[in-house]
Amino acid sequence: MISAASGVVTPYTVPGWLMDALQATVLVLVAAAATGVVLIRQRVRQVVALSVYGLLLAVLFLVFQAPDVSLSELSVGAVALPILLLLALAKVRERDR
Amino acid sequence: MTPGQRRWVFLVAIAALAAFYLWGLAGLPGFGNYPGPYGTIIDHNAAAQTHATGVVSAVNFEYRGFDTLGEEFILFIAAIGVSTILRHLRGERERPAREEALDRDDAMAADAIRMTALLFVGPAVVMGWYLASHAQTSPAGGFQGGVVLATAVMLIYLAGQFLTFRRISPVDLTDAIEATAAGGYVAVGVAALVMGLPYLSNFLPLGGTPGAVGSSGTIVVISLFVGVEVAAAFVLIVSEMLEQTLLVPEGN
User: Where do runs of H (alpha helix) occur along chain A?
Assistant: First the structure.
């Protein structure tokens, strides 16, 4: 954590309480988004919600100091996975028709 | 089993799971505490030993390069698996893309979406190459760069340029690029063997200054190979899925 708690103080050091508040906020948002994904019953909307959840997860990783994981999650969770799911839904819809 | 009995089995199982979970949580080190010596040792030595200031990349492509090789092949095999399972079946024919477009009222995305998607293609390509080629200096690396590059290709599809998407990512070519890049990683390891060093040793000059773009020897080479492999694998998986939406059973 880039906070006063780590002992190293730079001009970019964020106060510990602020970092804690940020982490707590993003954790709550991720939990809310995950619940949303489960509760939404309409499939295409569910995929969009999943994409938003992926985006929030990327923010979570960033706030917990894993920018490399965050970058991967941003592309895989918010873009690649939703596209694959949408394509699969399109295929299923095609077959049902 | 009646639904009532089933509920009891579930309740007992979930209670046991919850108990074990809480017991496990109680034994965890404090939040943000890192008790292991490994990270501290790496932190102190990585920059001097590898001339990479992106210590995560130093771990991924140098200290644990062999693990990463395995991980890369997981993705490689996954892409091969998708293209094997999603092959053209007998009795399926491809609907021409034009026919597909005429078939749908909403085939064209809104202008705003198409414009925005196209605007992001260039930045995504630059960002992807930057990430894949700067593993040694920043919290980036081949995997991140590769997925961002693949995103650029997907944006072209999102912009409604399906025919362009197909033209720039023909399946055979993507397949070949993926295999070549995966092989490149292996070859870097073999090159070290040829020089009489252990597999995947960093045999290239490390460069003068830690953190310079040209420093860190094989780390950046491996990162670039991984970047190309990952980008090709993702594009391959998406194109295979895309082809599937165009296939219809014979007689339709």
Answer: 16-39, 43-63, 67-75, 81-96
